[in-house]
Amino acid sequence: MTKKVSRRMRELLKLVEEREYEPLEALELLKKTATAKFAETAEAHVRLGIDPKYTDQQLRTTVALPKGTGQDIKVAVIAKGEKVTEATNAGADVAGSEELIAEIQKGDINFDLLIATPDMMPQVAKVGRILGPRGLMPSPKAGTVTFDLESAIAEFKAGKLEFRADKAGIVHVLFGKTSFEPQDLLENLKALQETIDRNRPSGAKGRYWRSIYVSSTMGPSIQIGVNSLRDLKMDEMP
């Protein structure tokens, strides 16, 4: 069945040409196409030349967005003893031990990010089947398994994001709000690009970047030239 395209979307699609845009030009257009009645998120969709079914071609890491996400991230921490109090004092929205794991087992998940101390990971593993599909399973590589709770909570609250490539080798990640200035969105997008390049999986062969599109939550996709973004020097921008 063909999905019906709304009149609003048909009008927005007329604004987007079938070509690769320069990064800043694309982000200026993204803001023009963000016409929903709520604060839309700016999203990037990057197709990579990887096959994540192989362990040496998987991509899971974090990016620190210099201009932040524009969102309030609800952080939960699983720890024990004094570390629970430390997490609460550091700004965690939810903190607990076995009782928090029990809530997760019941499907009571009211957070966007989960951090765990290393000594609690054997217990957290028991709810891995629940957390994994939601992208919430703590990982040392992602910085969400740590005893340094204060730093971790502060970083994620300030704009650090975890992301991964899906089964098709595509990275879907937000990089701000459409209310941001185009230059600020560009700084965040550039940070994302550099992070993806820096964390290229060892098994990735041939052309790594295939394509990158940006869009607002309810807007059309806009293609950016991969080389234009990768060659961009932020300190040379006006």
TrEMBL record:
One of its GO terms (biological process) is regulation of translation. The keyword RNA-binding applies. Coiled coil: none annotated. Pfam families: Ribosomal_L1. InterPro entries: Ribosom_uL1_bac-type, Ribosomal_uL1, Ribosomal_uL1-like, Ribosomal_uL1/biogenesis, Ribosomal_uL1_3-a/b-sand, Ribosomal_uL1_CS. Keywords: Repressor, Ribonucleoprotein, Ribosomal protein, RNA-binding, rRNA-binding, Translation regulation, tRNA-binding. Signal peptide: none annotated. Binds directly to 23S rRNA. The L1 stalk is quite mobile in the ribosome, and is involved in E site tRNA release. Belongs to the universal ribosomal protein uL1 family. NCBIfam families: rplA_bact. Part of the 50S ribosomal subunit. This is Large ribosomal subunit protein uL1. The gene is rplA_1.
